[in-house]
């Protein structure tokens, strides 16, 4: 089963083995002049945007590649390589007009044929983001600057699918066919790749010919620092300018440092627990609902996020225009009342003596921490939890084989409601590991993919989300925050809820 952006999501949260060797690559303050020294929490796996599923990779590639369109800081889709587009009356033909004079970093012109090549590569090779293009019937280069995309049916989220993140980047054919894209990528973005020091850093430099104008800095040096305390020390001492590699418990300390800015926004990510419908007694809705009542989301959010995570009974955060309110398992209930409801449901299901295995991965310690709270919560209603800690590869193998009672993890990078729900909860969804099937939900999720009226579309997804939560296909826990800290000398930078790290508008004013 492909995990697509799911892998991208949790990659940002892991603790790797990199550390002080990367720090040594950062250099000292004044010697780096107009170059941003950024520390990320891990090393990119490789640099082909169509094949990577690592969040660390996309932190770098966000600055190297462009998409046809892209989300602004409010997650509204805006022109990027395409300066404009039109849609036919039947909403099945989209015509994109590229900006004039576009060029790749190697000097090759970027034209409509490159857009066709990029999308056909993803579709034909069934790469990790092919699902985003599955509505497409035909892609044609009308001329050098026009691309015509025909879809099988009205597709209201086509722009989001094409530009939501750099996995749909427009790539250079010569760079791909040489095989160098994985190690020396060539894009059209505001920065071009310079060098990589394995285990230490990646350097990119400003692209003076970028369609949005040249960046205000000379470049960015991305160092890899997995130890949060090391990153915090480097930031406070002036060895780096920016990081998102700090522990949440350090935010209050950083916020008190007058030389730093700390940005915290609710992310479009979510963390969840799911139970295996194919394994008794977890196929019984009453058992799943009992677990949903018993779990203390507030405590879990506090433990993992130190006050920055937001408990939520649905996937979509309150900051999104697609937010839908649902609070069945928490509204008006203290812990005692919630536990009483849980116990009553377990009695009805004849499951008062129940053991549950909970699969988490040591690669993402948030899951281990949250699982300990969950185990304590469920013990209060008579459910004994055995926490199974696995490395991520083994975790994926067992999930894909359906060999689990319950598991916990998260998804990131969601923009459109289809991203939040279809793959995970449609009966044919490729990431429906829990084997959930509800014909009403299927109909709603199918309808949401073609409904063009945004008010009706929101109602459709609200109804689907409510049914999914009522059925406890996923037991949603919380929306985490995007936390980043940077020197006050770094201006024009915005912390985004989609966690895209964009330095194109940033500038440095070193004292």
Task: Walk me through this protein's architecture.
This protein is of the alpha+beta class and 511 residues long. It has helices at residues 4-11, 20-23, 55-61, 112-124, 158-163, 173-177, 228-237, 251-255, 285-294, 297-305, 335-348, 365-379, 392-400, 417-425, 439-448, 454-471; strands spanning 35-40, 69-71, 77-79, 82-87, 93-98, 136-141, 146-151, 191-197, 201-206, 219-224, 242-243, 260-266, 270-275, 310-311, 354-361, 383-390, 406-411, 475-479, 481-487, 490-491, 507-508. Strands 8-9-10-1-11-19-12 form a 7-stranded mixed beta sheet, sandwiched between helices. Strands 14-18-13-17-15-16 form a 6-stranded mixed beta sheet. The chain has a 4-stranded antiparallel beta sheet with strand order 4-5-7-6, covered by helices on one side. A hairpin with a 4-residue loop joins strand 6 (136-141) and strand 7. The radius of gyration is 23 Å and the shape is globular. The model is unreliable at 1-22 (pLDDT under 50).
